[in-house]
Amino acid sequence: MSEKPTKHTKVLIIGSGPAGYTAAVYAARAMLKPMLVAGMQPGGQLTITTDVENYPGFADVIQGPWLMEQMREQAKAVGTDLVEDHIQSVNLKSKPFEAIGDGGQKYTADSIIISTGAQARWLNIESEEKFKGFGVSACATCDGFFFKDKTVAVVGGGNAAVEEAMFLTKFASKVQLIHRRNELRAEKLLQKKLMENKKIEIIWDSVVEEVIGDEEPKNVKGLKIKNIKTNEMSELKIDGLFIAIGHDPATSLFKDQLEMDNTGYLITKSDSTETNVPGVYAAGDVKDKIFRQAVTAAGMGCMAALEAEKFLASN
Question: Is 248 one of the annotated active-site residues of the chain?
Answer without folding.
Answer: no
